[in-house]
Amino acid sequence: MQDFKFGPVQMPSGVDLLRQEIRAFIADEVAAGTFTPKRNSWSSFDADFSRKCGERGFIGMTWPKQYGGGEKTALERYVMTEEMLAGGAPVGAHWVADRQSGHQILRYGSERAKQTILPKITTGLCFFGIGMSEPDSGSDLAAVRTRAVKADGGWRIHGTKVWTSSAHRANYLIALVRTSAKEENRHAGLTQFIIDMAEPGVTVRPIYNLYGGHDFNEVVFDDYFVPDDMVVGEVDGGWKMVTGELAFERSGPDRFLSTYQLLAESIRVLGSEPDDRAANEIGRFVAHLAILRRMSTSVAGMLHRGQQPLVEAALVKDIGTTFEREIPEVFRHLIPTEPTMGSGDSYAELLGMTILRAPGFTIRGGTREILRGMIAKGLGLR
Length: 382
Hints:
Blueprint: H1 15-31, H2 47-55, H3 74-86, H4 92-108, H5 111-122, E1 128-131, E2 147-151, E3 154-161, E4 172-178, E5 190-196, E6 202-208, E7 214-227, E8 231-232, H6 238-251, H7 260-270, H8 276-304, H9 310-334, H10 347-357, H11 368-378
Parallel strand pairs: 1-4
Antiparallel strand pairs: 2-3, 3-7, 4-5, 5-8, 6-7
Helix pairs in contact: 1-3, 4-5, 4-6, 6-9, 7-9, 7-10, 8-9, 9-11
């Protein structure tokens, strides 16, 4: 049985100055009209903004300087992340590369991969997608069927990935692929590969949302060749690495700040004298937000110390995405507004697009059913 401990974290010195720097950067960009604060900003793709983030040293902040990084602490990077999200900055282009893919390459990649890819990520000019999900397998990553067969100097990959966000704009994917036949241990025989999307043998097909948006894709591999030095970690050792990667994906502030813009704007619309019901809901959401931030920063501290808080990260993601989904449901009853679709700045459009996207919050990064199974196992309940 595992004890859940979300201990306090002491932020490093200089964090307040970093906050001021990032807030000033965002304010200057908004004032210049380069972007309008976005709802769900970490899904908003803006290559030019990512380039500016790279110029300011806001990508790869914790990585070694020899690979273009800033050698900052994980907690300093956490502060940067929450300020970008709270400010509605369109960080989606570099998000996956900075949040998890770059960490995987830094920790498990070959020296050639580190030297050729990491510096491009830190400049804000190199974007990644996540090649995990597959057709008919849902959130069960152990059911991966995409197969890699050993070839001279590398591997040949055949198979399909699905729901791959921004694959049509990504330079690379890190794909989880089966390299050995299934055993009784379903987690054995899986390997991660770095996929160069510019090479032949990979086809990206769009999957359009109901409202016509193009975020997701199907990615098909047809005799795609990966050289040996683009294997991430040990062959057949991919399961341990992918679960560690998911700790980065599941525990950050993106798992409870996706609807922050709606929360803040709803409080503004309700005004300084909300009725009792509205005041109660505002207080509840603010209290929950404070607790989630405490839990999330605690996990960031664990990751900084080299730990793998998989169950704690799952708990943050489960509670955080439930929090995100609840915000539009509560405020649409408190504020008499007819939600509309569109990219404008009105409250009706903010509410409408948030309602539209909210069902996906508890699915992406692992469904709540999968996460609650992990949590129950950690508690010794199964």
